[in-house]
Each structure stands twice: as structure tokens, then as C-alpha cells.
């Protein structure tokens, strides 16, 4: 009931804001008020189609010459098998991690700073 009252109030407010609609135009009479007359009965004899002039036959197209075959591509020579990749020599692992006190100057982390 409350929803209906709210809708009615909203519709009333909207109708006040809108200008009055023009009156609808009078309905136009339908184009065909009378039933279409029954089709006239066909005559008993079949109708002949009017004689059409004979269509001149198109001149036959000359046969297209056969396209020359594309020359066969020379077969590519078989690629020689790739030589086996030589295995990398095993790197000698240090038995103990390099320390900064080594005097060699070459460790895996770059040259060691000279001890002071």
C-alpha cells in the first residue's frame, strides 16, 4: 500500500511537470476497406509464353594454353650431422671456500683486496 502511494505521488508530480500531450490524431481509415475481388477464373486453354528472340550463342572461348610447369626445385643437399658438443672440463672445486686472506689475488668473487 505504501509503495502504491509513493508511485502515485511520483506519477502525479511527473504529470504536472510534463506539458499536456497533443490529442491523438484521428485514426486514418484503412487503405483497403472492401475485400479484394476474387481472382478471375483462368481460361481453360494454357497461356502461351510470348516468343522470346533466340539468344545468340556466345562464341566459344579459345582453350587456354597449358601453363608451363614450374621447374622442379633442386633438392637441397643433406646437412652434415652437427659435431657433438665437447663436454666442458669439470671445474676444480676448491676444498674450502676462498677467504679474503688469500694472497693469490684471484678468487671467484674478484681480486682480493690487499691486506693492510
From TrEMBL:
Keyword terms of this UniProt record: Signal
Q: Where is the composition biased (Pro residues)?
A: 19-44, 77-97
Cite the record's Low complexity compositional bias ranges. Answer: 45-76
So which residues are the signal peptide here? 1-16
- Would you say which domain of life the source belongs to? Eukaryota
Region entry Disordered: which residue ranges? Answer: 16-116
Protein name (record):
Uncharacterized protein
Query: Organism source for this protein?
Result: Chlamydomonas leiostraca
Amino acid at each position: 500500500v505504501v509503495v502504491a502511494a509513493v508511485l502515485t505521488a511520483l506519477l502525479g508530480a511527473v504529470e504536472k511537470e510534463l506539458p499536456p500531450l497533443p490529442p491523438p490524431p484521428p485514426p486514418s481509415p484503412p487503405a483497403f476497406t472492401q475485400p479484394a475481388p476474387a481472382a478471375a477464373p483462368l481460361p481453360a486453354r494454357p497461356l502461351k509464353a510470348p516468343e522470346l528472340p533466340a539468344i545468340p550463342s556466345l562464341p566459344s572461348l579459345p582453350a587456354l594454353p597449358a601453363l608451363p610447369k614450374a621447374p622442379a626445385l633442386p633438392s637441397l643437399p643433406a646437412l652434415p650431422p652437427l659435431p657433438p658438443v665437447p663436454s666442458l672440463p669439470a671445474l676444480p672445486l676448491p676444498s674450502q671456500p676462498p677467504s679474503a686472506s688469500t694472497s693469490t689475488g684471484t678468487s671467484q668473487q674478484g681480486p682480493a683486496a690487499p691486506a693492510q
